[in-house]
Amino acid sequence: MQVSSFENCGAVVSGMQLAKMTDSELDSLRTLFAEHGLLFFRDQKLPPEEHLRFARRFGDIVVNKFFKTTAEYPEIAEVRKEKNQQTNIGGGWHTDHSYDEEPALGSILVARVLPNTGGNTRFADLAAAYDALSDPLKERIEGLNAVHSNKHLYGENGLYRITDLAEQLGGMDRVGDATHPVVIRHPQSGRKVLYVNPGHTIQFQGWDFAESRELLDELYAHVTQPQFICSFDWQPGSVTFWDNRRTWHMADNDYQGQKRLMHRITLAGTALNAA
Ligand code: SIN
């Protein structure tokens, strides 16, 4: 197995097939996942059964409450955009499932149908971004909690509901909020991580929306600096495995008129502790 760093975040793992992973390769992947929080693989042969098998070897699966799943495999969510659709799933910076009391550990995304060009996924490293915050900003956010929600996306009149994505969604009755520390201690690496995201964080606990907006925008402007970001160009056989406690991601929507279909399995996590 070879490992090389990728742009400003994550690592590319080569020289192995996830479908044929040995126990010692799995141990190495756990270590790399804790170290980098974002792993990329190329040229994989990972049909849905093997995607599921790899996920189950790594952890327990948690099914997304809103996305449609494949007909045959209810644990595999479809991230689908048809040729005639304008809006894509995950088109803004977010962290999967941060609105859950026990946010997802990670997500494993496999390319199934790709546009000829475009459709990259961008990632941001929130451990590196936290480390680089100024001391006064670190002091301001220490001890804060933030509320994460999905109602503004999937609830009645939610953003996704009023677009042509609505047909890809279910489960409006499952909307809800959760509160998490703004700076978490990563359960595996022990690093401090900034745990707020533009997709789901709506306010700091005990603050009003306007006050919260101002500080959130300041934090988001910091995280979206180029030194914390990378952009992964999908090829047939590409797989990405990211840590939802440490990264943000967003799917570029720059391939109008073409289809893109990804299969995503999300792994269950635990409640998050303040750093
Ligand atoms: C997602 O938000 O999980 C989808 C990412 C992608 O389609 O690139």
Q: What's the CATH topology label?
A: Double-stranded beta-helix
Cα end-to-end separation: 33 Å
- Ligands bound to this protein structure: succinic acid
CATH architecture: 4-Layer Sandwich
What form results from the Cα inertia axes? globular
Helix content: 10-25%
Treating each run of at least 4 consecutive H or I residues as one helix, how many helices?
A: 6
Strand content: 25-35%
Q: What count of domains describes the coordinates? A: 1
Query: What structural category characterises the helix and strand content?
Result: alpha+beta
Low-confidence stretches: none
Biggest sheet strand order reads: 1-2-3-13-5-15-4
CATH superfamily: Clavaminate synthase-like
Order of helices and strands: EEHEHEEEHHEHEEEEHEEEE
Rounded to the nearest angstrom, the radius of gyration is 18 Å
- Biggest β-sheet description: 7 strands, mixed
Number of strands: 15
CATH C-level class: Alpha Beta
Give the overall pLDDT as a whole number: 95
Structure description:
The chain is an alpha+beta fold and 275 residues long. The protein has one domain: 4-Layer Sandwich (Double-stranded beta-helix), CATH 3.60.130.10. The protein has helices spanning 23-36, 48-58, 126-131, 135-141, 151-154, 209-223; strands spanning 2-5, 11-14, 38-41, 77-81, 106-113, 121-125, 145-149, 177-181, 183-185, 192-194, 201-204, 229-232, 239-243, 247-251, 260-267. The model has no long low-confidence stretch (mean pLDDT 95). Succinic acid (SIN) binds next to strand 5, strand 14 and strand 15.
